[in-house]
Amino acid sequence: MLVIHIGMKKAGSASIQSFLTLNQDSLKESSIDYPVVGRSGKKDHHNLVSEIMGRAKFFPHEGTISELVEHIVGHSYETTIISSEMFEGADGDAIVKLNESLAAVGQQFRIIMIIRDMINLMPSSYAQKVRFGRSKYNFDDFFEMRIKERRVNFGETAKIWADVFGWENLRIVDLNASRPAGVDLIDDFLDAAAVKQGAAALSHMPRPGIVNAASGWRVLEAVRALHRGDHHLPDEHRLVRYMNGRDSIFNQKRIEKGAVQVGDLRGWNEDRGQYMTRTQAEVCLDIHCHSIATLNSYLPSPLAMPPDLDARGFVERSFLPEAAHIDAEDLRSFYDELGLQLKPKRNSADKNDSAT
Fold this sequence. Notes:
- By secondary structure, the protein is of the alpha/beta class.
- The chain is built from 14 helices and 5 strands.
- Strands 2-3-1-4-5 form a 5-stranded parallel beta sheet, with helices on both faces.
- Helix 5 runs parallel beside helix 8 and helix 12 packs across helix 14.
- 37% of the residues are buried.
- The C terminus is likely disordered.
């Protein structure tokens, strides 16, 4: 069986991919293959998505679909898994191309889609964009743009895939569903993948735990202000000089990692804050319910509807989290500490260099 995990984004993909990568050798002993083809040492198969969607980020040296087919045909594993949450954004033509390209493997397909409650997903998606400097908008502006995207209605995304691969080959896993003690998302994923041994037989394999955990609101908003240029730091501050370095992508990743570390030391990550208004939460709930209804009109076993806002104990925000709500001295101290976290190895030329 060829299993294609298509996301959704911010719905446990990093944890699943980390588990598969961490145990890739042990999984082969159970006739489960997580091919290196298409991920080239990485945890995900994003490169295969770039290929079928014709993106500039497609790099043939990282593995192609035709090479993946050769790999699968040349081995006799009972289950092969490819995983990329970027598949979520594929259109119908790209999915048809993928189906036709993989037909030569001569195996049954299993498409796994993991859904997540929109009320939880929206702040998580916002945090991911802000942490890596990919969004400089406040949450309200981000929400207005994000809520209009096609993939927000995951029922439509599922239908696009099912139209090509068939509803009988689609499996939906609800990230927010309640689970018995000792059962986690990895177990649900393995069960959905129909691994012959069953998830319980693989329970001895190490689990990565939570990957890409959210930062506290102060950390997020301090980082967003830094990328927006609203930091009020002098040009000679180490952090500003670092931001203006040549390798901006590398710098952004180091800033993100350093910000989380400084936030931990200051206790800022313990308070994630509340980002949503009740009106925004109601919009998310309506879209989520509509998507579930769409899926339930096709699935043999209906999915549970999410609880209403009062039943789930929804708490509306008391203010829109922004850097302006952080004490100015605390914010400057955070930036100073972050600058020291990013400090390069010292040599005789910069021994006297300070955070400012």
